[in-house]
Amino acid sequence: MTTVLIADDQDLVREGLRMLLDADPDITVVGEARTGLEALAQTRALDPDVVLMDIRMPELDGIEATTRLAAAGARARIVVLTTFDLDEYVYRAMVAGATGFLLKDASREQLVSAVRSAVSGDTMLAPSVTRRLVEDFCRRPGSVPDQAALDRLTSRERDVLLLVARGRSNAEIAQELYLGETTVKSHLTHVFDKLGLRDRVQAVVWAYENGLVKRGED
């Protein structure tokens, strides 16, 4: 059973998300929060698998709440809730430690898929909108690639990281590189460990910020 905490300052949004999630027999909403501080307290108390985190909340915004939870080593995967898909706040939340983002008008299927993907970490990270988001806000003037970190990766680990940054799933990477999916997962774990990354979202951001993949590449 996957447990979810919903953090949003709008009652109707929380109620709507709860209704959609409660319709799935494998997902349980264990709590709700109206502010960023409540989200921190509830996450620590309830230890949910996933937190659906609104960005704009009173007392403490979702970006800072995400940053604090990631810094504290919270187990929960954080999916940012937003009204607009191309929003610099969303990018900042991803850098802070969010696993991904979800539009507030998402369908039940999209919501359930986002929750399951956040937990598994094995499915394709990014639809085109996430990639556009990363491209729009990465590689700012003056950014310097971390060549020393890149040099720690083997050639195969670089290949896997590049394909993850291009939005490929583990199955697609395995097919393209003629590897087993278990081997792909192993390479990806090594990439995370060597670069100090938490998940696929941070891997995509790192790849763009350090020039491994460039804007417009497929």
Describe what this molecule looks like in 3D:
- This protein has helices at residues 11-22, 36-46, 62-71, 88-96, 108-120, 128-137, 147-151, 155-165, 170-177, 181-195, 200-209; strands at residues 2-7, 27-33, 50-54, 77-82, 100-103.
- By secondary structure, the chain is of the alpha/beta class.
- The chain folds into 2 domains: 2-120, Rossmann fold; 145-209, Orthogonal Bundle (Arc Repressor Mutant, subunit A), CATH 1.10.10.10.
- β1 (2-7), α1 (11-22) and β2 form a beta-alpha-beta unit.
- α8 packs across α10.
- The protein is globular.
- 36% of the residues are buried.
Radius of gyration, CA atoms, in whole angstroms = 17 Å
Order of helices and strands: EHEHEHEHEHHHHHHH
Q: Could you describe the largest sheet, including whether it forms a barrel? A: 5 strands, parallel
Under CATH, the homologous superfamily of the largest domain reads Response regulator
CATH topology-level name of the largest domain: Rossmann fold
CATH architecture of the largest domain: 3-Layer(aba) Sandwich
- Helical content class: 40-55%
Distance between the termini: 36 Å
Number of strand segments: 5
Low-confidence stretches: none
How much of the sequence lies in strands comes to: 5-15%
| CATH class bucket of the largest domain | Alpha Beta
Principal-axes geometry comes out as globular
The number of distinct structural domains comes to 2
Question: Which tags fit this structure?
Answer:
alpha/beta; globular; 5-stranded parallel β-sheet; single chain; 218 residues; Rossmann fold; 2 domains; 11 helices; Arc Repressor Mutant, subunit A
